[in-house]
Amino acid sequence: MDTFITYINSRDRLSGTDSRFTYRIEFPAQRTFNRVCATRITIPKSYYLISEPNNWFILEEMGIQTRVHVPVGNCGRKTFVRTVRDLLNFHSPHSWEYNIDYAGMNDIDDGKLTFTVKNNIFGEMEQQPSLILGVGLFEQFGLNRNSRNDFEFSKMRSINQVSFQAEDTLFLHSDMIKLDKRSVLQDIIAVNGVSFSSITWECPEVHSNCKRLDGQSELVTFSLTDEDDYPIDLNGQNMLFTLLFFNGGDASPRNAQALLPLASNTDEKIN
Predict the structure, then answer these.
(1) Distance between the two ends of the chain, CA-based, in angstroms?
(2) What is the pTM of this model?
């Protein structure tokens, strides 16, 4: 079976960044292929739990809206709660006093946060603030995306369980795969990766993981996103992956699987 194997290092890109770049693939002369399979992918888990530009929420008090930015980086629940509490108190237009709590060691932990506010009396009535979430931070707050969340009786609870796992499902896209509207070359589950380590994925079966090529161009664009197609920022660290090209019309499942050991023979590492 006619095949071609190439190793992509985002550091050798023609343009772009390590997580969205244009790359030149030098195909063998007079040979064309109609299938591609990512057989091995190594991605640094250098991206953050909280990242720009979606690291903000809006605090609303009595019709006054204040955009609040949470510092970029990784954190756990305890640090996040302390940071957001301090930001709420600092940015409160009326100097209201906010607190955030969650179940402690002696309680059953439901993974949700409780928000409270004090000193919010105006005209002898308690005034209720709101937290407005966009496309970021909603998982850490335990709230819904693009939602308005009003306090009642000076209190509010998370709707959902909070999450402090940096993106655990990644998607590698390429404009070679135009027949798929999302141009997904491969999805990668990263739940077991520790922050600042590396995520390694190896193809278990070629036939079901290969994608149909939409033509064959030397200039190819690759990008890495989360499940909502928002870009992943690798913060200057490079990713590597191996691509196996072949002709699908010649490949039975058994023949395609026989190609896998060939495509896995590489010693390249992130550096």
Answers:
(1) 33
(2) 0.83
